[in-house]
Amino acid sequence: MNHDSTQRIAHSFGSSAPDCFMVATILLVEDEPVTRMSMAARLKRLGHRVLEAGNGREALDVAGRERPDLIIVDWMMPEMDGPTFCEMVRRDPAMKSIHIVLMTSHDQPAQIAEGLARGADDFLSKAASKQEITARVLAGLRTGRLVRELETTGAQLESSMLLLQTKQTEMEADLQSAAAFVHSLLPPPGSPAPGFSLAWEYQPALTLGGDLFGVAAIDADHLGLYILDASGHGVAAALRSASLMTFLRVENILQLIGSYDPATVLREANRQFPLSAEGEYFTLWVGQIHLPTRTLSYASAGHHGVLLSPAERPSRWLTRPSSPLGFDQAAVFAGDQITLQPADRLFLLSDGIYEAPSTTGEPWGRWRFQQAVEAQQHVPLAATIAHCFTEARRWQAQSDFLDDAAVVGLELSV
User: Fold this and answer.
1) Higher pLDDT residue, 399 or 168?
2) Contact, 71 vs 99, CB < 8 A?
């Protein structure tokens, strides 16, 4: 079978062609001309392209230029013997995966071990039969092809990993930028209205959090405040929360419904933010303080994290049973009112702080949060909030929270 015939047969098989029809380039390195001619003729009859070299130094030049699929090299040669040639090939990164068959009359274990240690992949006796030569050549070509495929796959994986790392870095930068933007929308600590002090601490579970809050003047006589909690985590929850946060902006609410009445705000939010197709939802607490009378009006849609902590009276939670937003489009959210007294403190918190689990899984709990607040009644507001975070972290025995953790404190001055 000549070379052209083999190529036609291999082409007819396509990618499934058996090894005996895969045309390869073989470098034959043999200093004895008759042996080299005989072996070359045999390999050519198998349909392969055969390159020839009479010694190791010449073979190195040919191998570097042609990059053969297989090298058959004699052990005993002048100038450079077979094992030394194997070592030289293995030092070249471009040729280290070429399959090398060391041809020798040595068949002692010591010689075989030396040849393998110095870079050979297989051995071929000079007295081998035609069948053995064919089998070892085909096995060597098959092994070499598998090694090259693995190298190609490895290179592709490395390239994919580099691309993934680049995309990950870009995504992290985008998330950091988005987080900074959301953080800029949060109310600045200080005095949001005459006679009131504001402090807060916020630690999202991820770079971008979904539990957000707001405190802003509505007009000269009213202060609006809210805290929202999005089910789920990650970017999707954060984007949904940013959308609700935009809806809750004072100018938007006044344009939509004409006032910041908490129950009316919840009714409109319930209409505009239905349960998602994936079952995601919000809980939301909205309050409005009439500054001249210090009257707090409030309503809740499934949010249970607002605590009133008076200076000289027991603390109490400002909530009543209600459904989250979006579960029932006809839901009615009842409003309540309370008059704030001097030194009263109002804490709005996300469930990530009081649901922080211990190592046994027990939540820190709202009552422990309440105890922590009451024990810190006579220290500055910001220090009280920091103390709550310290106690929650101690309870869960780690600094990071599994859910977004937020505590907003509003204090009426004496």
Assistant:
1) 399
2) yes
